[in-house]
Automatic annotation (TrEMBL):
It is found in: Cell membrane. Pfam families: EamA (PF00892). InterPro entries: EamA_dom, EmrE-like, Small_drug/metabolite_transptr. One of its GO terms (biological process) is lipid A biosynthetic process. SUPFAM superfamilies: Multidrug resistance efflux transporter EmrE. This is EamA domain-containing protein. Gene3D superfamilies: 1.10.3730.20. The chain crosses the membrane at residues 47-68, 75-93, 99-118. GO terms for cellular component: plasma membrane. It is a multi-pass membrane protein. It comes from Lysobacter enzymogenes.
Amino acid sequence: MNTLVWTLWTATVLLDTGGQLAFKAAAGDPEAGDGLARWKHMLSRPWLWIGGACYVLEFLAWIAFLSLVPLGRGVLLGSINIVAIMLAGRWLFGEKLTPWRLAGMGLIGAGVAMVGAGA
């Protein structure tokens, strides 16, 4: 894969991970309340808008990425987002990484490495 493909792939991983983290931060705010009040509170916070912006930019990067690689390869390479989000969730929100999740992350990582290498 050339430099542009790697750059776009990295951008999609970072933007998707950033978007998920921002949405989690918006949704997990203890001051949010319930029902309609919760939505009003979330809409007034920057995390929701940062997450949305990340998703718009990720969509554009993803379309550009898919224009350069076969669909099957692109989608498989994109699955590394799962690993990045789980690691970031652990780091920022203290979420659990059980042995099963770690094993799954290892399998996903190995699969992405194989697909990326052209296997």
